[in-house]
Amino acid sequence: MKRTAALRTAIAELWSADAPTRAAAAERLNAMASDLVDIRTAQPALTWAMSDPDPAVRLAAVRATHERVMGGGADVRLAVPALIELAADPDVEVRWFVWATLDLANDRGNFLAQLPAVVKRGRADPDPNVARITKRL
Amino acid sequence: MAKAPSPADLERWLEKITSDKVPEALSALAKLLAWARGNPEATRVIPAFDGLAKTGGPKLKAAANAALVEIARMAAIRRGELERLHAFATSKKLAIAAKALAPGPEHVRHFDVAREHLQAGESRAVAKMLATLPAKAAIDAIAGVHDSAREVAASLIADAVREAVGHRDEVIRFAAIDALAICGVQRCDLSKHVPALIAALAHAGAIATAPKSTTYAARTIAESAQRALGHAVHWAKPADRVAARLREVVAKAPRDRARAAAWSLAWGSARCGDWDTIAELLGGAPHVVEETARALVPANKEQLVVSGALAAQIAALRTSGGALARTAAQIKVAGGKGGHVDPAVLAAGLRSDDPSEYREAVRLLRPVVKQAKAMEAIVPFLVDGLGNPREWGVLDLVRDSKLDLTRWAPLLAGMLLDPNFEHQRDRVRACLRRIDTRKRPWHALRELA
To answer: Which CA distances in Å does B218 have to A18, B43, B210, B391?
Structure first.
């Protein structure tokens, strides 16, 4: 599959030594996904970015993944374990996008049924918006 | 069949077939052919007959070709197997005769039974055949093993020939060790065969002292054992144990066996990028240095990606003079005089949309795989290379590396859920086995795949 230069550049910049550059790259991928550009080849790098030490990068990576499944119906099961680890992120916006993505991804296999302890912690999330998603699971 | 001649008789006849006196040469050839009829060791005379078929006068050429065809017909070895077991026999007529052979029903029986056992996963049944059948029948059976080598799991082949490496018959010993070398090519873990393979290196001693024509079997057994041991260094788990065993042989065994072991250790170490071992061998005794240099000469145009220090060691060999300098001149080190290439330059192809560039990058990175710092530097390329799940070279590199895979764990676990990576699950699991994931919240998901 021949990728556009913009996609290739964004993937490469996810590895920049500079955190704002990494976050900006993930945001560009988010924008591409909402334009229904196929960014599946970026998913391994986005998944890796979910454990980035910078919170802005983590958030942007989760949002891009969420946009892939929300906007394009993509299969993001590759990112599921990384998302589960982010379910305990201190940033509530991250947690909301994590659970929103897991909710959609779960339609492809109900893997959350194997993780009752994780779901239980999600239901006990102090943020009501997050808890509203997890209570549906 | 004529009474078995003594080894001295055979030697004398093999000398005489190269005589300038044509009647004497023809007589020796006829005696050798008479001895060879029905003899499982018949293939020993092939090199000599082959040479005569190429260089003899018209009468000798004709007689030698006819003898080669007859040996091919008599040999209890299936068509095509003759070529594999005796790859050096370049006579076209021999190859044609082997292809034209229609094996008799008895030959087919043992050959086919061995194949059927292997396809049913019954490697021990084949091992029993090889141990208990008469030599001719066992040769048929091991020909069946070779024939199956690329159809069944390499581990089954290795298990089937495990005891046959010590068989009383030389052809079967060679065929068994050659089968292990084929298994090594298919990345089978040969670590439990190492003692028998090291014992087979003892044949290497015969190479230096005996005439070429009579050491065919010894040479090929030792060479096959060397190759199999080289693969064992590359693929055995844990690899260090095989390397340690070979180091002992290099240090303590008689020179010929030490040389053979040095070649195997160097060849296997170069394949997995263990340049520390290469540097150590290049600092050893002269015969060890010679074999190490020989092992580093590539079969193709492949360049070695080594440190500057090792490149300098290799460059110094080129000025040492004699055969060693000529051997060292054939070793290709990437990066020219400096000898050091940034692994990121090699890894760039992992981001390419062109499958051939991708695969070339994987190939170039093979020698780097055990170099921890170099592999850490190219993690971005490795992760991006996973964006093409149709290719699995990256996972092979990750699996064989010494990378700390802790941060890789969620991505690897995700590959077990993603159907695009279904055909790579064994590789993924091999990577995950290096990490303790029990404390990860998604640990239970590993069971879903």
So the answer is: 62, 12, 10, 41
Q: Per this entry, what is the length of chain A?
A: 137
Looking at residue B73, its pLDDT comes to 57
Query: CB contact, 8 Å: B386 with chain A?
Result: yes
Q: Is A120 on the interface with B (CB under 8 A)?
A: no
d(CA B367, CA B234): 11
- The ipTM is 0.95
Does A51 lie at the interface with B, CB-CB under 8 angstroms? yes
Cβ contact A84–B421 (<8 Å): no
Q: CA-nearest residue of chain B to A52? A: B407
Q: Is pLDDT at B151 greater than 80 in this prediction?
A: no
Interface check A91 vs B, CB under 8 A? no
What's the CA gap between B159 and B180, in Å, rounded? 9
Residue pair B46/B68 in contact (Cβ under 8 Å)? The answer is yes
Nearest beta carbon to residue B387 from set A43, A111, A118: A43
pLDDT in tens, A1-35: 578 889 999 999 999 999 999 999 999 999 999 98
Supply φ then ψ for residue A129, to 5 degrees. -65, -40
What pLDDT was estimated at residue B148?
A: 81
Reduce the DSSP state of residue B172 to 3 states and report it: helix
Q: Is B383 on the interface with A (CB under 8 A)?
A: yes
Question: CB-based contact (8 Å) between A137 and chain B?
Answer: no
CA–CA separation, B377 and B400 (whole Å): 16
Identify which of A41, A67, A57, A42 has the alpha carbon closest to the alpha carbon of residue A89. Answer: A57
Could you report the per-residue pLDDT of A48-105, keeping only the tens digit for each? 999 999 999 999 999 999 999 988 889 999 999 999 999 989 999 999 999 999 999 9
Q: pLDDT at position B232, please?
A: 85
Long-range contacts formed by B372-380: CB under 8 A, 24+ apart: B372/B401, B372/B402, B372/B403, B374/B343, B375/B343, B375/B401, B375/B402, B375/B403, B376/B403, B377/B343, B377/B344, B378/B343, B378/B344, B378/B346, B378/B347, B378/B350, B379/B403, B380/A12, B380/A14, B380/A15, B380/A45
Question: B336, B333, B288, B345: which is closest to B306 by C-alpha?
Answer: B333
Q: What is the pTM of this model?
A: 0.52
Beta carbons of B405 and B372 less than 8 angstroms apart: no
Are B448 and A42 a contacting pair at CB < 8 A? no
What tokens does B85 get? 């077991």
Interface of B with A in 188-207 (CB under 8 A): none
Give me B238's structure tokens. 């844990």
